[in-house]
Amino acid sequence: MAEQFPGAVLDLLDAAGDRPVFEHGDRTVTGAQLLALVGRVSRGLRARGVRPGDGVALLLGVTPEAFAAVLAAHTVGARVVGVRPGLTADQRHQLLTGADIAHRVTDSPDRPDDQDGTGTVPPLALADLLAAEDDGRRPRVTARPHDVARLLHTSGSTGVPKACAQTYAAMTAAWAAHPDRWPPAIRELAPRLRRFLVFGTLASQVMLEYGLLALAAGGTLVTADAPAFPDSLVRHRATGSVITVARLTKLVASVRARPADLGALRALMVSGSPIDAARLREAAEVLGPVVFHGYGQTETGMISMATPYDGPGSLGVPPVDLEVRDADGRPLPPGTDGELYARTPSQGCGYWGEPALSAEVFTDGWVRTRDIGHLDHAGRLWLTGRARDVVIVNAQLYYAGPVERVLATHPAVREAYVVAVPDDDTGEAVHAHVVPAPGQAPHLAELRALVAAELGEATAPTRLTLLDEVPLTPAGKPDKRALAARAQRT
């Protein structure tokens, strides 16, 4: 039987040898040194009774030791739950009490983020695990294919976060650590990650995936504890990093107002929410051809990615199985909008402890994305909305995505977000939240006329709120729930 994940990653570190693979402050760690750290933490975990299938929560920063701990937890075959920084006590409690955690590894036991809210899971100090002796041997991978390798929590931007389970077999089938499996867009991206800026937690799905890609491409992971763009990019001479749509918008505005030396920058991977074509063109004008627009989900991993050379608005040609289906589950022809169903090598197997929801989303080997879009005749993917991000007006369902995109075309609008609000006459109506362009103040009447002309009167916003900036979830996505709650109060 082939060695399971993270065997291929250990191979990368072994092959790197004396090449630097991690830079943290004034420290540089080589592949051989990081591999030794993985071995020590693995032995420390086993000595404390961690076995394949055990639930292990990781509350860690972005140090080389933290990265080694992530790999070590997988090396021993644990079911890993990464706890991202910035969660509230209630969110941590919900996340950890529902995940059947037996062990909790922390690199700073006194900080608030390291409290699990239950008092029932004693911490394992990473420093103590690292005290295990280095025996000079390659770490022994004991992960089992059908065990759950990790629980990945959705962002909760449209509901309560769910724990998506991914098996070791799925992680082993993933493409990041295997150059021979890279799809075309990833082959374009990978060489640009010579100095990949990492932050938050290396246990996150996106940060780990792109971090492994950088290592496989011969790059170095460079840490930023609290990234502030563009300063962190300049200070660390970063060639690539991950960025949300909201932060990309701020970065472009900042660099336009105060030019920064971003000559080293080669790639910004944007994911988490759609970005309109006008914003992509503006980013290319200010930053150069560096934006890679990815589309994927917690449940599927990457589905498709547009390179800087794809037409703005499309998400490129998906390298995975993707079907566009109607409400009855029948495939639709090119150019016709429908719900997207994806099938990827590394997709999840269900939601932890939620069999009914799992059966609804994971069906016959496919994952229902609950997103709306179409494939054009060239096979390129276009997103047009989210199946459950809707407003129901006079019993007719309208998707928020198209309304937001029309609003964003107004010259006085920098960002636009739409939520449903109760309406005595129509049941629900559209409430628009807008971040104005600098020095502008769009009027509701203008925005209503614009939307009505493009999409019809039913979707024209009846209310308008101007924002200095959009609220974000802990994952950095626009917080639609917060906007809806604010709309209810006005």
TrEMBL record:
It holds the Pfam family AMP-binding_C. It comes from the Bacteria. Residues 403-477 form the AMP-binding enzyme C-terminal domain. Residues 103-122 are annotated as: Disordered. Residues 17-352 form the AMP-dependent synthetase/ligase domain. Residues 103-114 have a biased composition (Basic and acidic residues). This is Class I adenylate-forming enzyme family protein. It comes from Streptomyces flavalbus.
